[in-house]
Specification:
The complex is a heterodimer of chains A (590) and B (122). Chain A has 590 residues and is α/β, with parallel strands linked by helices. Chain A contains eleven helices and 24 strands. In chain A, strands 1, 2, 3, 11, 12, 13, 14 and 24 form an eight-stranded mixed beta sheet that branches. Chain A starts with a strand and ends in an 8-residue tail after the last helix. With 122 residues, chain B is mainly α. The chains are: A alpha/beta (590), B mainly alpha (122).
Chain lengths: 590, 122
């Protein structure tokens, strides 16, 4: 039996950064908002404090804050010729499943993606000609500009306590910041984190080679901070437990310490945890949705929640899955190249070198999410000529530590036995003396990298699993080789005692080991309903009272972490929805 | 008995004020580092316990807060001297406590902070 509940103004599906921002802002604007979250309520007071923290077994091995693959997972394959098989254990990426979502366990890296991404096709075509972009590379302009998004980036950075050093304020280059960044109206909310030895050594070496190192902007409060909403942050203690953990010092910008408690204070807002949305319900007119169907996963009770407006704010992949399960928009077919839902799934790539300095003490356990120095000379620097290297996109390079797990991190030089006495001796010798330099690279859209519903495997609710088809293409292999060379050149210039060189990843992608939780695309934004699922206001072209917020709207993936534009687009969508409720109609005419 | 506790608290509070020769205004600014977790008002337990009535209180006795065993058995009573030692290096003074804060190395800053707390709870 399905219980039909009383209609509300807005139902928000998923309660992390985007769901938290939308819920708080819309409830404060006077709309009746209900948020449905699969996971449980968690708080810093009760959960992210001793003795419940700093536990590698619980959070890293057993994925305490992550999606439970026994209930729902996805099937994966590298290309349409293969049979996809279920990913029965999380590996390559880690979607959160808890109040606060993945933003509880993120590191905090907060970047501003620029017109380099938003106008990717037009920029490359203008400079290199139409033939430079391979025929199967389905990149497109996003339909939005950096200038439009700038105030929303600012809003998100100040909400999340982003610490960093501006490189360009209103067109004036600032010493010590990132000289390639787009102009910002003002500096970051907080000064950068204190550098650590490994990041200082990297920055010095990079500078000597003519590059432009700067402290990585990160939502790790470098000092005590009260954000514009009045949420209070403690100062980062450099404990080293950022990625995969909740922050015990209340210093990491997360929704459960900012927008979520404020939403919960509003009489217009209600949160229902353990609520698993199975479908978005459609109006027969083909132009609207009427609410969502969900199941209480504690007791199996089923509900329909009618709503005037539905906003999908779940993890990027789950937003796409819900669209496919609901039959909204035409599913994408990579062979015929028709349809849009599921198109342009993108991931990220990267290379890492490990440097060993005999006698050095790096104290790798002391770090913050953003205690790395970074260079963007091969990323958003348009002066870097891609022509001779023949690839689209870029990569950033960083040195330092971010969440170096006391048990899991065991750097040893190549050739060391993997177990036994020799391994023990090497791990004791090198644990303190090793540091890493990594490159993180963009992944351009390809016609065959996509999502659809799996024909065979089903989840605990009897619904088809999402099927992911993905592999790196020649473009990424070329970029990976370039990145490996850059990383190795910098590493060698530092004269380490031993060096595990970076090598380009050219093998097919697999679900192990952990690589990056930055999954993008599937319900992309754009200017044309035949080539995108949502318009620039993240409103679906097909049904004007359905909005999709998250990295699922990105038409391709950059080298940067996605949370900056995800947060900015959430605030941008709040403003769009406030306009929409006054005149419920498409915000962009098709 | 209750009267005795109050009298002791008053006495200890007085000794706190006597030592608190710091700048309470600067200390108030410094308190921004503590405020995300500690309220100054009665019965407001957040990430850390309320500091209401701190001077003269035994460590680990704010009624509704879940303290670490280390704190509960520390035997520490809060006054200007013990606060100064604790704030300088929390883990050295009460090993195994669960406050995620590395400490304040600057002695003047500690004195200022204690002066502010003393003034607040005068």
């Amino acid at each position: 039996m399905v219980t039909r509940l009383k209609e509300v103004d807005v139902v928000v599906v998923g309660f992390g950064w985007t769901g938290g921002i939308l819920s708080k802002e819309l409830a404060e604007a006077g709309l009746k908002v209900v948020a449905l979250e699969r996971g449980a309520m968690r708080s810093t007071e009760k959960d992210y404090s001793l003795p419940n923290i700093r536990d590698e077994l619980r959070y890293v091995v057993r994925h305490d804050l992550m999606q439970n693959t026994a209930r729902d997972t996805m099937t994966v394959r590298n290309n349409p010729a293969q049979e996809a098989l279920p990913m029965r254990r999380l590996g390559s990426f880690l979607p959160g499943e808890v109040v606060g979502g993945s933003a509880v366990h993120w590191s905090g890296h907060t970047w501003r993606w620029t017109d380099m991404e938003f106008k990717v096709r037009s920029h490359y075509e203008e400079r290199y000609g139409k033939n430079f972009i391979p025929a199967d590379m389905t990149i497109q302009d996003w339909g939005i500009s950096y200038d439009e998004l700038e105030p929303y980036y600012d809003r998100f950075e100040y909400t999340a306590a982003v610490s960093g050093k501006a490189g360009n304020i209103k067109g004036r280059i600032q010493p010590g910041g990132n000289p390639f960044e787009a102009p910002r109206a003002r500096d970051y909310a907080l000064p950068p984190l204190t550098p650590i030895l490994s990041s200082e050594l990297f920055a010095r070496a990079a500078r000597e080679r003519g590059y432009h190192p700067f402290p990585r902007p990160s939502a790790n409060a470098s000092q005590a901070y009260t954000n514009p909403d009045g949420s209070k942050f403690g100062a980062c203690q450099y404990c080293g437990y950022c990625q995969r953990f909740g922050c015990e010092a209340n210093a990491k910008g997360s929704p459960h310490i900012t927008v979520i408690p404020l939403a919960l204070k509003s009489p217009n807002f209600e949160l229902r945890t353990h609520s698993w949305v199975t479908k978005v319900l459609k109006e027969a007119d083909g132009k609207r949705v009427t609410g969502v169907a969900y199941t209480n996963i504690l007791n199996g009770e089923e509900f329909e929640q009618p709503a005037g407006l539905v906003v999908l704010c779940a993890y990027a992949i789950n937003n796409v899955h819900l669209m496919l399960l609901s039959g909204i928009g035409q599913p994408y077919d990579p062979v015929a190249q028709t349809g849009v839902v599921g198109k342009n799934y993108c991931y990220q790539t990267g290379v890492t070198a490990t440097l060993f300095f005999e006698g050095r003490n790096f104290n790798p356990f002391i770090n913050a999410g953003g205690s790395n120095a970074t260079i963007d000379d091969f990323n958003i620097n348009w002066a870097f000529d891609r022509g001779p290297h023949n690839f689209v996109g870029g990569y950033n390079v960083s040195g330092g530590f971010n969440t170096v797990l006391p048990i899991g991190y065991r750097p040893v030089p190549s050739g060391t036995p993997q177990w036994g006495k020799a391994w023990k001796a090497a791990t004791a010798k090198w644990y303190q003396a090793a540091m890493q330099i990594s490159a993180s690279g963009s992944v351009m859209a390809n016609r065959y990298n996509c999502f659809d519903l799996d024909p065979t495997y089903r989840n605990a609710f009897g619904q088809p699993l999402m099927r992911m088809t993905f592999d790196y293409q020649d473009n990424e292999h070329k970029m990976g080789r370039h990145a490996a060379q850059t990383v190795n050149d910098i590493a060698k210039s530092m004269s380490p005692t031993r060096l595990n060189e970076a090598t380009a990843r050219t093998q097919p992608w697999t679900v192990v080991p952990y690589q990056s939780t930055h999954n993008t695309g599937g319900t992309i934004m754009g200017t044309n309903p035949r080539a995108s699922v949502v318009n620039k206001y993240l409103q679906t072209w097909e049904r004007h009272n359905l909005f999709l917020v998250g990295a699922n709207v990105f038409p391709h993936n950059a080298s940067y972490n996605p949370t900056g534009p995800v947060g900015a687009l959430a605030y941008w969508t709040v403003d769009a929805i406030k306009r929409y409720v006054k005149n419920p109609a498409p915000l962009v005419s098709a | 008995m209750k009267g005795l506790v109050v009298a002791c608290a008053a006495l200890l509070a007085a000794s706190g004020i006597a030592r608190a020769d710091g700048d309470a205004a600067r200390g108030e600014q410094r308190f921004a580092e503590c405020a995300p977790c500690h309220a100054l008002t009665r019965d407001v337990e957040s990430i850390g316990p309320s500091l209401y009535g701190l001077f003269g209180r035994k460590a680990g006795t704010s009624p509704d807060f879940r303290y670490s065993p280390a704190f509960k058995r520390s035997g520490v009573t809060w006054n200007a001297q013990s606060l100064d030692k604790y704030l300088a290096d929390p883990q050295a003074f009460i090993p195994g406590n669960r406050m995620p804060f590395a400490g304040i190395t600057d002695a003047t800053a500690r004195t200022d902070l204690i002066a502010y707390l003393a003034k607040t709870f005068k």
